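User: Here's a chain of 168 residues. Predict its fold as tokens.
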Amino acid sequence: RAVPMGGYVRLAGMDDDNEGEEVPPPDRAYYNKGYWDRFLVIVGGSAMNVLLGFVIFVSVYAVMGLSRVTPVIDQVFPNSSAAQVGIVAGDELVAIDQLVAKDDVEKAVAYIHEHPNQTLQVRYRHAGQEISAPMLTQLDPESGHGLVGIQLRSEQIPVGPLQAVSLG
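Assistant: Prediction complete.
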């Protein structure tokens, strides 16, 4: 009762089975309180759970910020379509078919995922030079997504206190 951890709090006088426990005075027993007081106790517990979740999310955003995927290729997997056309770590994904990756990286990744076993025209920047190459997506049997064998770099973006509250 003193530390309400684990989602369980037993209120004084709420249960009839008080073997070996001290019986609370009648004025402190849960069922001897008015309806409004009992309502506030139950709602207050739920409200504190929501408030705690909000505080935790705001704290995480304030400390860690937001994670954003960039069009820079962080890793190329061996024997993948990307490795076969010569893409290496550090190259920048420019476009997939007519979809410009720099404008919306998540949309470009989703486009690859939505086209398994299809040939896509991929443009990337390697050593300052823009290269275009056809690339066959490979089907990932677990997810059913199309893959080309790259992992994009992500970066942490710090957020201010007001934005952390908004995100929380």
